Amino acid sequence: MEVISSPEEMQKKAFALKRAGKTISCVPTMGFLHQGHLSLIREARASADVLVVTIFVNPAQFGPSEDYRTYPRDPERDLRLCRQEQVDIVFAPETCDIYPDGYSTYIEENDLSRWLCGVDRPGHFRGVATVVTKLFNIVQPDVAYFGQKDYQQSRVITKMVKDLNLPVRIAVCPIVREDDGLAMSSRNKYLNPKERQESLCLYRALSRAEKLVMSGEYSAVTIREEMEAVIRQEPHSRIDYIEIRDGETLEPRDQVGEGTLIALAVFIGKTRLIDNLVIEKVPRSLSE
Ligand code: AMP
Hints:
Blueprint (H helix, E strand, L loop, with lengths): L1 E3 L2 H13 L4 E6 L5 H11 L4 E6 L19 H10 L4 E3 L3 H4 L18 H4 L3 H16 L3 E5 L3 H13 L5 E5 L19 H6 L1 H15 L5 H13 L4 E10 L13 E9 L2 E8 L5 H4 L1
Parallel strand pairs: 1-4, 2-3, 2-5, 3-4, 5-6
Antiparallel strand pairs: 7-8, 8-9
This protein binds adenosine monophosphate.
The site of adenosine monophosphate has 17 residues, from helix 2 and strand 5.
């Protein structure tokens, strides 16, 4: 496995691979890898000749009062895991290589980015879109893998790729969860044992929503109220949003149907957690 930190060297390598007729898959991450990341890496491994994992904690996607400085990092362990997964190249640049002094160019998606996490985290998706575009230009992937865990991010990137005619296919992989249902996330490390217990309310709220839909309750207002009630049972929880939206356009929906996204962001103590569910099917007899 090669570890490259220089964007120029990575890009040169990518062009050489392309000239040799190789296909490249890419998994962009911020490191502190867990099974969610590894599921993307395994999918990506099988899909191209050369697999590049990028590890970069992107300052541009953190707000001024967010956790950029304290974001968990463990580069040694990340490299060990990548080696185990037979990653070909880890691209792990320094911040100053990606954003040198005087850097002034940003990419903005201006529709899907407005909602959900875009409300509480202004500039977040601009930071994501910018770094992902830069990583695509450096790594030259044929296909790039993202997680449904960050549903809105995957939609913004898919839209950006379409709008800008970027020659890369975006693949989205399912959410990997702990045994008790908590969606895996590097930020779960922030949770103390009490908060870790309380964090299960996100999954419980989504499960409640799914159960309601399966029993024929499609009203977004009712489902949201029921989810709120589940979250409020936990003393250290604070709801940022619970949203019921079209899974493609992210427009608000009054009624849940096939392809509807149910997404939530909840603070447990100081830690902001997100999770979501896409309703694939509504009961047949009820949808007719
Ligand atoms: P991050 O390092 O948090 O920026 O995540 C890198 C990629 O891994 C993103 O595409 C995430 O959506 C994806 N990811 C993070 N957590 C999970 C999870 N629990 N299941 C599946 N994919 C995930």
